[in-house]
Amino acid sequence: MNTNRIVLSKKSKRFLEDLRIYLFSSGKNADEIEDIVEELQVHLIEAERDGKSIDNIVGQSPKAYMDQISDEMLTDYQEWFTYIVIIVFGSFGFIIMNDLFQGSVSYSLLEIIGYLSIATVFIICVFQAFKYIAAHNLSKIVEYVIFYVLGLLPISLYIGLIFLNEVIETPVIHLEMLGMIITAILTLALLLAISYWAKTWAMLIILALLILPDTVLHSFHISETLHLLLGTSISFVGIAIYLVIHSKLSRAHS
Amino acid sequence: MSTTQMMKGILDGCLLAIIKDTEVYGYELAEKLEDYGFHSFSEGTIYPLLMRMQKEELVTSTLKKSTAGPRRKYYSLTEKGESELQHFMERWQTLQASVNRVLSDETK
Fold it and tell me: What pLDDT, on a 0 to 100 scale, did the predictor assign at position B68?
């Protein structure tokens, strides 16, 4: 039974993945996407067994074919919206948790609005980039350039926000002890809910690995340089180890 | 109406006709069409058509396990689909008759 999966050529597998990404970033319903991808997978497996290539099935332009399929599906922006809300608030939760452990929680109005809009802009750009890459046969170099620019985008926007925040004065929201505790509970609840929804503890584990080393090191009296160096190394080595274990586990699982 | 649209309409009718008698899944449908002489179209074209026909409730589908790997999606005709097939056959007869008359009269 397993041989059938292996039989599928690289090109066909790539096409199915691209199709999935294209439809997803076009805001299509996840169940419907799985449906058509599974159906085409069956078709491709049998066609390849009969010695036909994917070009016979998809035609000259994969992009045109993806569009034909996309046109027949309802656009389901509600699902898209859910993802955006989850990612935006999830990342905001990350920032808040980090600041809570540092002991300073005060944001200007501009910062709050800025964080939320940067995250939203970033996600929309990510979706558009994936859609573009999935539909066009790009060279690896062009793909890397797109991802590179995409990666730089939020960083440069954040830097812009920091400077803007210095120049423009907006009301500052400063949290006292009680406020911090309430915020911590709410944020943790949010992160837990998202983790439960996504059925993975990855986010919380990575968050803990980012925050805890720094906090623990605070109780030792070491120089600031060593503190910074140790803190970041422990965080990143920890995350790397976690990712390796995670991928081994999920591979063993499948 | 562009040629591709006309072709799609004809393919729609042929798909309905093939589905009418037996439950079939996508690959079988494509093979049958090819056996009947439709060589110039790419096989994948049938899926957007099937998706639309399902949305219009002309066909329904069920997933069935196969011995040879992932589940296949089998299509069958609804009552609405049967009457659409009747309409298609009537339209096609008229069209075919007209085209034949034009060709036999004008190309003597």
Answer: 64
